[in-house]
Amino acid sequence: MKTNTILPAALLGFLVSGCALTPAEDESTAAATPGDSLSEPLADTTPATGVAASALASTIPESVAVGTSVDLDAHAAEEGFALPPGQAMIEIVGLAIATSNDHVYAWFADGTVSSGYSKDLDHYTAPVPYTLPGGRVPKDILGTGIASNARTYTWFRDGTVSAGHSTNLGAYGAPVAFTVAAGETLADLVGIDFASDDRVYAWYRDGKRSIGTITDLDAHQAAVAFTLPPDRKTRHIVETAIASNDKVYTWFQDMEHGNAWPAVADAVDGIIVDRLRALGAAGVTVAISKDARIVLDRAYGYRDVDTQEARMPWHRSKLGSVSKVITALGVTKHAEQSSSFALNTPVYGSNGVLSDASYAQAMVAGINRHKPLVGFAIAPSNRVYGWYENQTVSWGSSSDLDATSGPAQAFSMPAGKTTNDILGMAMSSAGDVYTWYIDGTYSIGTPTDLDSVSGSGGAALEWSPASGISVTEVLGIAIRKSDDRVFAWYADGTYSSGTSKDFDASGARASYSPPAGKTIYDLRDADFASTGVIYFHYGNSVSTGTAADLDSTAPPYNSALASAPIVNDWLSWYGDIKVLHLLNHSAGFWGSGDVDGAARMFNVDVEDLTYAQAHKFILSTRRLLWAPGANDFYSNHSIGLAGHVLATASGMPFETFIRTRILNPLGLTDIVPIGTGDFARDATPHGVSDGHLVTQTLAPAESLNGLAAGGYSATAGDMVRLMLATDKQSNHPDILAASSLTLMETPPFPATVPGRALGWDYASGKLGKGGDIGGGNAYIAKFPAGFLLGGVDVGGMTIALCANGGASSGELRSLADAVVKAAAPVPVGSSYDLF
Questions:
Q1: Is 112 helix (H, G, I), strand (E, B) or coil?
Q2: For residue 195, is pLDDT > 50?
């Protein structure tokens, strides 16, 4: 039983071992009258005079009230409280009151726990680390409570509960299942704790409270109604806790601002707030349309967690890849307006948009880099092997790759792989052939059977380049025969060493220099001879040297290849690429651009790099994956190139075209390039470090080269307005003709690329697009007429969510579906429209 008895210090230390932070609080703290320490401040907490009212008004209201289990402010109205330095209210994952001394414990999303009283959560102990059971993370926590035996119980979102102490939440055994009150769900739980008789009280989003046990939350009493302080909603509850005198403490946070049809807000606000807290995200703007009218345009959470400033509906945040939909609209608009440009216009060639001969020259350079040789390795016997695009292999010497084998012979590959997937090859001291692929896997085999050792039936072997390096930057791979250490050379002029699956396991990267007359991008592959000398192959020549000096022992000399006809005619593939291939990722381009690499190639500063140069770099260094339309590979560069094509075809900069032909006619002033416009209208971007939200600097834009692929920021409201301008409805003018919208929103290659329209992802008629970029996440969706989501008709609705960090686009997509499903059945006044 919880009592007001003051315990001896020694006994207190024993009891609190289950719930207190270490070291234990001193006797003067422990002897504070239980109950009083919960609510009595130790110093004046009135804000200093001279603080602007507007500054106070823009922060998120946070408070604590004292009451009973069915009347949450029966004993004391709401008052403010203080968090530990650097913590935000949204990062609280659990609150509980200890039995022995009525100290309030607060667990945070960064994996720390503090102790204090109700209005100063770290008054007694600053945050220290805690651990969770079974691979769980802080965001999995639904609520916490401390029983009279000093054990801390933690209820999780997967429907389990664990027993432990404040710094080890699973110390006393693996989690077991629990059930919520009848008619409630796990997502409805908003507060939980133990009363003095160790019965568990639980509060729910529908305004009800149940009484039960640790594993059965309504075992003693079914859920009954409770009341809140004036103007409070259950969605404002962060957590509840019960003191030794059975007074209930409830911490509140009002996170929402903006407009909505009231019934729609009531239906979705709780879902959004709960998910935002569960994710530990900074803030988000959300807008919803129904029947071609905007019925909600609101903001939730923080504009800036450091200043505690609230997010408002007019605060923009980064869209990431959602920008691709804007690009597709622009390209389709030009196709609609121009007599000489269409979605099926060739990108290259005399009849294409990019007809300059320099593009063809870059293509030839790229073909020569990757064809016909796809791999080069040296056996322990110093026999030199070469593998070719037509899936043949020869062997001989470094100067004559088929001197011993004669005509090249066939080799086999792992299932699903082609020679176009090979990134590099090398041979170990045992003579095994290691082959690394562009999808991040590798195989082990023989010269004629590349996975005979690793086998094709088991799980794929995975590898990673050096930290900070992408797969596209790997130029050559070798294995040192003396110790089987793997070396890799990169496009940034560095190399690393490690293992076959971790290329920098042996330490930091170091610089290397290519031979005179060669560039970094001439390197095709490399391997060690048994002597320790490294042979570097450039497609038609070889040099020998060290990892840092590629020709220290011999400058480049000729290397004759076996006769191996080119199989895939990349020049023909390039000639077949149309504008629409760029917009649905089926052109065959691999990955994102590389502005640093392009700037090095053209010897310019990154901010001075043109998109033409950026694209010629890709053409001359990267492989083309397949014939256009045959498959899809998500490529930021492909969409960026579409923006360059639009600028070239229209004769105006990409940003100017989008602004003057799409955004301005629609009055959409809150869709702008990242780092431009009035920064007062931007939400602060946030990252996550060790589970903790960290503010980032929004810097002025130095270049708009990445704009088409992921460079816009916006509010959710303006993104829904943009979607309403593409809905073929009469409520608001459309920016494109209905026929153009049909082309844009229908997959052009349903047999080979069924999941991609132009700019949009496509699934059974639903159009969606997510984006993730440093400090910003977004998701938008359009639901076609009659579309069912979990049995609910959401047809004709649109939704946009724009977060300023802490939530992935995938998590926003899940939230969008839940919100739309909840809002769909709600009747809305026929004239209500926030457009």
A1: strand
A2: yes
* d(C-alpha 33, C-alpha 124), whole Å: 14
β-pairing, 510-511 vs 409-410, is: unpaired
> Which pair of structure tokens corresponds to residue 359?
């593009």
Q: Are 546 and 513 in contact (CB under 8 A)?
A: no
The angle formed by the CA atoms of residues 677, 680 and 686, to the nearest 5 degrees, is 100
Residue 592 · residue 578 · CB < 8 Å? no
pLDDT tens digits, 736-767: 999 999 999 999 999 999 999 999 999 999 99
Predicted local confidence at residue 84, as pLDDT: 95
Task: Identify whether the C-beta of residue 799 lies closer than 8 Å to the C-beta of residue 720.
Answer: yes
**Which of 614, 574, 607 has the alpha carbon at shortest distance from 592?**
614
Residue 244, C-beta contacts closer than 8 angstroms, at least 6 positions apart: 2, 3, 4, 34, 35, 97, 99, 102, 196
d(CA 82, CA 88): 10
Distance of CA 47 to the CA centre of its chain: 38
643 φ/ψ sector (left φ>0, alpha ψ -120 to 50, else beta): alpha
The CA–CA distances, whole Å, from 831 to 260, 825, 828 equal 13, 17, 8
Mean per-residue pLDDT, 804-811:
94
Distance CA 686, CA 158 (A): 27
One-letter amino acid of 327: T
**782 contacts: CB under 8 Å, gap ≥ 6:** 723, 726, 727, 745, 766, 767, 768, 797, 798
| Long-range residue pairs from 653-659, CB within 8 A, at least 24 positions apart, any chain | 653/704, 654/327, 654/330, 654/704, 654/707, 654/708, 655/704, 655/707, 657/330, 657/334, 658/326, 658/327, 658/329, 658/330
Bridge partners of 212, per DSSP, are 200
Give the residue ranges of DSSP H helices in 44-132: 53-57
Output the CA angle 439-443-445, nearest 5 degrees.
155
Closest Cα to residue 79, out of 229, 211, 187, 184? 229
Q: Burial level of 58, CB count in 10 A (0-12/13-18/19+)?
A: middle
Could you tell me the two tokens for 617? 């770099």
- Residue 825, number of CB atoms within 10 A of its CB: 11
pLDDT digits (tens, 9 = 90+) for 316-369: 999 999 999 999 999 999 999 999 999 999 999 999 999 999 999 999 999 989
Torsion angle in degrees (nearest 10) through CA of 53, 56, 61, 63: -90
| Overall average pLDDT of the 514-536 stretch | 96
E strand segments, 274-428? 283-290, 293-304, 309-310, 317-318, 373-378, 384-388, 392-396, 409-410, 422-427
Classified as helix, coil or strand, 256 is strand
φ and ψ at 165, to 5 degrees?
Answer: -135, 180
| Paired tokens of 226 | 């409770």
Residues 663-719: pLDDT tens digits? 999 999 999 999 999 999 999 999 988 888 899 999 898 888 899 999 999 999 999
Find, among 125, 159, 124, the residue nearest to 140 by Cα.
159
For 484-502, what is each residue's pLDDT tens digit? Answer: 999 999 999 999 999 999 9
The residue count for the chain: 835
Report CA dihedral (233, 234, 240, 242) to the nearest 10 degrees. 80
Q: How does DSSP classify residue 662? A: I
